[in-house]
Structure formats: structure tokens, C-alpha cells
Amino acid sequence: MDAKWQKRAGYLKKGENWLIPGFCCLILFLAAGLAWDYYYDLNDDVLIRDILSGVYTGEPEALTAQLLWPLGALLAGLYRLLPGQPVFGAFLWLCQAGSVFLILRRSLLWLEACAGCPSCPVWKKLLMCFLETLIAAVCLLYHLVFVQYTVTAGLLAAAAVFYFLTVPRNLTVPRNLAVPRNLAVPGKEESAVSFWLRCLPAALLFWLAFCLRSEMGLLLLPLAGVAGIWKWSGCRPVFTKKNMAAFAGLFGWIAAGLLICLGADRLACSDPAWREFERLFDARTEVYDFSGADLRSWEDNRAFYEELGLSREQCELLSNYNYGADDAIGASVMEQVAAYGRKTQGAFAHSPSEGLWLYVQRLRNNRAIVPDDQLPWLLPEAGPVALLLSAAAGEWARWLRRGKGGVGQTGTSDAAAGRREGSSGRRTGILWKLLLLGAVRSGLWMYLILRERVPERISHPLYFCELILLGWLLLDTMACGPWAGTGKPRAVPPAGSGRFPAVLPAAAALFCLAVGICFLPGQAERTQAEFFRRQQVNAVNLAALSYYEDHGGLLYLADVMSTVDFSEKLFSEKSAPGNYDLLGGWLCKSPHSEKKLAAFGYESMGQAVSEGKKIRLVGEPETDWSWLTGLLAGQGKSAVLTPEDEIAAEGRSLYVWRLERE
């Protein structure tokens, strides 16, 4: 019996670096799922799901205008194999859970490799994973419950960066050291190809993030470059042929992978109709996401719109996002509006001085400038920076004390011994690494601020990747040895290290615990409030979907602004094609939209609005439809909009209107 228990204990010991992170992830995601429920964050995510699953056009489509084709083709293929299953929702959930799990596991392996103690006590590993999970819950709880594909791409990219940081560039490691095989190869210096292969999981994660949201991958690419410079600098001597081949070559084939993914997407989108739609899509993005609302105002730009040939009613379609109702507003018109916006408003929303002031206010956590949802990120970033600066100051103090000491029994000064231990490198290493990270993150934030494009789904992944970099640097500093920064194990702790290295882990643990106690209840309250709000808002959406299904012979076209708050549960799935669409939005006038309308006998949405007898218009009670009758009057047609029905649930309602033509 004792032998069996010892054997089982041995298996558990070998697998604890899998079991402990898995247990912490299970607790985090199980608690989130039981306390609330998983939702798509935005209606954009729901529309992507509908395209991939075939709900939108009747068959799964690989082109989504958001995901790159390689990933879209994979997910659409899975929908064909598993019809009616929540493939996209499960994919996003697995990506988020996998990213958190990977970060927890790699942090344990990195600590073992740096400290040279693979037999680290289980309670220390549990404590470390618990604290990391606590910080993840503080920063990500809202996004783990309300899942957004852009945020998921950011988590994947951050996990890729952390994986890369925890893959050491192995120098010659003594064979007699107990080293985790997946983090070090004892006996010889590895080749560049071997290093590339061990970094392959990180590259695959980054390619996946790029395919999921290419803009997020590009935004976080400079931070990945910071990680590369940090790692390269830890390999001494730095500029050897093998090191240059390893790191420069790794960056080269990661970039090549990104270009291959992008090239495959461009090839898949080579159809002229899709290219025409992409022109409209890109111009629409510039008009709605990077230009002020006054650009779409008739009163402020009447001369321009009259010269463009648009009426007041057509301009109103640009303002209320229902431009699909008029076939005259196509790629050419939208491109001219975007060009006019660049001419009158400039490429940036703020001047450099204004942007710098706004950036400083964010760093100061000015509550009049920084939204409340940014606070859980600012303090967790400030804490590691303060601890790292304290570590650097402690190294300076110890170095100065050694410099004042005499020659030891071996005839060697303590200062020289300190230099051999690498303390001088750690002193300066922490400072220049923080300065490099600060410079790069400042450039990224200035770009976002100047473009006035800082929504949560962009800012929070950026914060998270910064936090991952700081967390690794802190972890590496806590496990510092003569080879700190490379992941190369040490046989014995550095001599004369004093009490400071023991204080740093304790201070970091107390800081993580304090952040969790202070901010986790607030994040839970925020998530709870949003969950109840979505239940109320989505009740009328579910009622509307049921209503559409009961009236399958009609096509329902919804006002865009009446539906922006709608979302659906992550693991719910629809299988039948829907007899409804939006009057605008980012998929409007795409080949997919035309394919959907063709199933109801219309060549375009403009034709459906002006001629369709089996269409109904849907919007909130206060929706202004005056533009519609004015638009038809401009086409020489007379019509009256008559309320036909009301869809009500949880105190909210949508009206169904019938267009009666005279």
C-alpha cells in the first residue's frame, strides 16, 4: 500500500506544474461561469459568429471582414463538421482560459529554472499561482465574463510574449544540475534552430492572435520586440553569431509567418466584389471610428454634401448608420467623405501637446480624464515598477557597502566578488529595461490618444501585456542569480545577497494580496451590474428573435442604433438562417449581405427598402424614421410608415413598422 501511495505521490509531484495552474484556472473560470454566465461582449462578436456558423447567409462563411481567412476557414470548417454547436464561443473561451493557464504554468517553470530548485515546495507554487490568479481576476474578470474577440487576441499575444520570455537561450549548462527538461538543455550551447523550435509555441500563439484580430497583433508587436531585446541582452556576450542568428532569425520568421497569414487572407479576398466591399469597409472605419461626429452633420458640411450629390436625408443615413438603405452610398462616396474628414479634421484628433497632457493625466490617474475601469490596471503596473526600482536601489546599496569593505580571506575584495555575481548588471539592467518599456508603451499610448481611439477592448489588452512584461521582470529579479535574465540555473544562491532578495518576494506577495482585496470586490460589482443590465436589454432581443422566427415569410430590417446594446450568450447557438438584418453596420453592402438579400428576392438593401412588399422595419419607439419617407420622396415615391406591432420584454420594447406605398 505504501509503495502504491509513493508511486501516486511521485506522479502528482511530476505533474504538479500542470495540476496547480490547471486547478487555479478551473477555480477562476468555474467561479465566473457559476456566478454569472458567459456573454459575447458586443454585437460585433455575435455577427462574426453568425457569419461563421451560417446563420447569416445560410452556410458557414470563411470571410468575415474581421478575422483573417486562415482562422476564418478553420472555424467555418468546424461549423460544417459540428452544425449547431457553439464553435466560435468555445474557441474564444478556450483561448482565454488557455492564455491564463499558460502564463501560470510558465511562471512556475521559469522560477524553477532560474532558482535552480525544481523541488520547490508545493505550498510556494500554490501561493504563487493563487496570487497570479488573483491579479488576473482583478484585471480581467469583466472580460472573462463578457468575451470580446479583440481582447481575446490581446490575451493570446500577451501569453505568447510570456512564453517567449520563459524560453531561455541556453548557454553551456553543467550536466550535474537538476534542470526542467522543457526549460534547459544541459551540456552544450544550443543551436539557433533548436532555440527557434522551442519558441515555436510562442510564435503559433502570436500568429493566432494576429489572425483573430490583426490590428491588436500589430499594436502589441512593439512590446514583443521589447521582450526580445530584454532576452537577447541577457545572453553574454550579446553579439555572437549564434545569438544574432537565434534572436534576429526568430523575429524574422515570426514576421514571415504574419506576412504569410496576411497574404493568404489577401488571396482569399481577391474577388472583385469583396475588394469593392473592403474599400467601403476601410472608408467606413475611418469615418465612424477615427473622425468626429460633426463630419456627418448636414448643417456643418452642407456645401460638401451638396457638391457630393447627397441630400439631407442621405446625409442623415450617414449620421444614424443606416446607410445601407440607399444604394447611392457606396465605396466611392464613403471614400470621399473620409478624405474630406482628413482634410478638415486632420489625421489626429489632438495636437502632440494635447496628447502629451492627456497621457500625463492618465499616468496621474486623473479621475476627470481616466475612466474608472482603468484604475485596476494603473496600480498593478505601478506596484511592480516600485518593487523593481527598490530592488535596483538595494543592489546599489549593497554594492556601495562592498566597496567600503576590505579584502576577504581569499585575497579578493567583496566589491570584486559582487561584480562577479552580476549585481552590477542587475542594477543597471532593471533601470534600462524599465526605461525601454516606458518609452515603447508611451509611443503606443500617444498614438491611441492622438487618434482618440482608447476603448476598453484596445486599452485593456495593452495594459495586460505591459503587466505581463513587468511581472516577468519582477519574477526574474526575485530569482536573480549570476545569470539573471537568461533562465540559466545556478547551483548555489549568490553569496552575500543579504536580506533584500528575501524581502522582495514577500513584498510582491503582500502587494498582490492587497490589490486583490482592494479591487476584486469592485470588479465583481461592476460585472454583476453589467450582467443584470444585459439580461434586461437582451430580453427584448430574444423576444424579437422569436418574433422574427414566428413570421418567417417576412424580412425584418432593424435600425442600427436600436440594436447596439444587444448581445447573446457565449455558448448559445442558432442553426437556422435568420430573416433579419441591419440597415447598416460594418457588414452592410458586402457580398454576404447581397447573398442574404438574394434569398428573399432582392438585389440590394436599397431595393428592398424602396420596393419590397414583404419587409418590416424594426426600431425603438423613439426612432426617427422621417429620413425614410424623405428618401423615398426623393426617388419619386410616396409612402407612409405605419406601426404594426410591438415587441416588449423587461420594460423595453421594439416597434415593428410596415411601409405602405401609395
TrEMBL record:
Keywords: Membrane, Transmembrane, Transmembrane helix. The keyword Transmembrane helix applies. It comes from the Bacteria. This is Uncharacterized protein. The keyword Membrane applies. The chain crosses the membrane at residues 20-39, 87-105, 126-145, 151-171, 192-210, 216-233, 245-265, 430-450, 462-484, 504-524.
